[in-house]
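YM 10:42: Sirohydrochlorin ferrochelatase sequence, as discussed on the call
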Amino acid sequence: MSINLLPIYQYTNPISFVSSTAARGSLIEASPRFVKVRTNIRHSYPSARLRCVMNDTSLHEGSAGVAYKDGVVIVDHGSRRQESNLLLNDFVMMFKNKTGYPIVEPAHMELAEPSIKDAFGSCVQQGANRVIISPFFLFPGRHWHQDIPSLADAAASEYPGISYLVTAPLGLHELLVDVMKDRIDYCLSHAAGKVDECAVCAGTGRCKMKLQDSKS
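YM 10:58: structure's back
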């Protein structure tokens, strides 16, 4: 099973924080190297709900996957910190470029715009006759059980005849292990002075080793 590292410059929004540095004689992208994609993935989860199968046929009408007339809304919690909200735009661009899905919109559950209602409407305006709302959350808490479905219902009420679905959150997926490992490795490399801050930590100075003084 091979793991391919995506060159981040192909997918990031121009407004994102991107910097680079020479380390060990090679150019390292600081925004961030932890994005990975596996090829020829085989899942061994016992539950079909935990499987995610995606291939070139998923874009064709009649398949079980996303079709050309489908809109995808990727929704996160939302933040009062604008820099955090902009990272969702970067992820949506990365997702759209990688999947080839024609209609993909970002949304924030609260605290920022665009809202789920805004993103839903944008999908319909682009020709979507079905909207898939995918929570950018790890586990199924209250927001997934109550808040997002309620907001999706309200958004859909303005577009009779448009079907919609709120998918499961990310949950337990083997690829998240690789993402977590890469995040840890990159942050340790930054703490060791080998690479620049990644896009998430840029300008914060937070990714540093700390040591509390022992109590006397």
